[in-house]
Amino acid sequence: MKIEGDRIYLRPIEMNDADGTYPSWLNDPEVCRYNSHGEHLYTAEMAREYIARTMSNCALEVFAICVKKNDQHIGNISLQQISLKNRNAEFAILIGDPSAYGKGIGYEAGKLLLQYAFTHLKLHRVHCGTHADNIGMQKLALKLGFVQEGKRRDAIFKNGQFADIVEYGILEQDL
Questions:
Q1: What's the confidence (pLDDT) of residue 92?
Q2: Which of 12, 17, 87, 96 has its CA 20 to 30 A from that of 28?
Q3: For the chain, which domains are there?
Q4: Residue 126's closest CA among 175, 164, 166?
């Protein structure tokens, strides 16, 4: 399945993505500044194992974010912990190519994924959380229509200190 946008498209992550730039993103301190990655060396073999697990997990859908003009894989976006019974899932995004920062790629990818979540999967609610210092993700969540629902205090240990996780949610009718 390919989900088309104006400048990008989303496609399911593929095994050959492990042979591209994807594994290096999870070793980049700037890319991993606010997430739980970057603590240990991430290899192509680890990426292949992760991709294989995603392909057999019905509660997880991971898409590659690709630029239409050159098919470059620049990030991943996913729905995690998908519960069809409760009709909800967690939203996650990683833009691995810093040259794509600040260009609205995350917003376009997020809109496409939310449309897929609510239209194709028939979800009712999607939620996400981010490091309290990750202002870019907080702005993205609000721009996508998420509403701040609260904070989990000292919920992540990153760079030698605890930090809060800011929680957001969006309902089907909010889109």
A1: 95
A2: 12
A3: 3-174 (3.40.630.30)
A4: 175
